[in-house]
């Protein structure tokens, strides 16, 4: 199953990202800190592919879980 999330970026507008739920290794709440002192609360997702990839998204773990529940 693929879920559509909102990828976080310091410089650009947030953009959509598709992540396969079967490839998610870890999802955790995370305080992302910029080198200039700015902070943003995101969800850090580590997923497997050829290598482990880390994606920061704006949705909370609860919102992500709700997207994975099939009716």
Give a verbal description of the structure.
- With 71 residues, this protein is mainly β.
- It has one domain (2-68).
- The chain is built from 1 helix and 5 strands.
- The protein has one helix spanning 61-68, and strands at residues 2-7, 15-20, 24-33, 39-48, 52-57.
- A 3-stranded antiparallel β-sheet has the order 3-4-5, with no helix packed on it. A two-stranded antiparallel sheet has the order 1-2.
- The mean pLDDT is 94.
Record the SSE blueprint.
Blueprint: E1 2-7, E2 15-20, E3 24-33, E4 39-48, E5 52-57, H1 61-68
Our count of helices gives: 1
Sheet with the most strands: spatial strand order: 3-4-5
Model regions low in confidence, pLDDT < 50 over at least 5 residues: none
Number of strands: 5
Order of H and E elements: EEEEEH
Query: C-alpha Rg, in Å?
Result: 12 Å
Q: In whole angstroms, how far apart are the ends?
A: 13 Å
Structural class: mainly beta
Gross geometry = globular
Mean pLDDT reading: 94
